[in-house]
Inverse folding.
């Protein structure tokens, strides 16, 4: 089975290299053994892709993924803030005893 070397582009400084593959409609790529990404159709500048992955592998559009990460960070910050308040209250109690 022959293979065509893929292009690896270096992004902006500090960014990870990007593997660039060319696929036509109805062609796929495999990520590991369990994830298949297929080009379903190409309509002008829009490309419809299909992703087959195990149910335990989360798949999100990047903008949704980033929003989820921001929400998680805000929740962690809120937990940390609440924890700091509890720690301060406990320290006050300890010092006043």
């Amino acid at each position: 089975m022959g293979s065509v070397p893929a292009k690896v582009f270096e992004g902006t400084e500090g960014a990870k290299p990007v593997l660039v593959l060319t696929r036509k409609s109805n062609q796929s790529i495999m990520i590991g053994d369990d994830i298949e990404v297929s080009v379903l159709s190409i309509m002008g500048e829009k490309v419809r892709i299909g992703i087959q992955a195990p149910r335990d592998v989360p798949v999100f559009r990047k903008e949704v993924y980033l929003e989820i990460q921001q929400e998680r960070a805000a929740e962690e910050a809120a937990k940390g803030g609440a924890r700091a308040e509890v720690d301060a209250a406990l320290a006050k109690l300890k010092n006043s005893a």
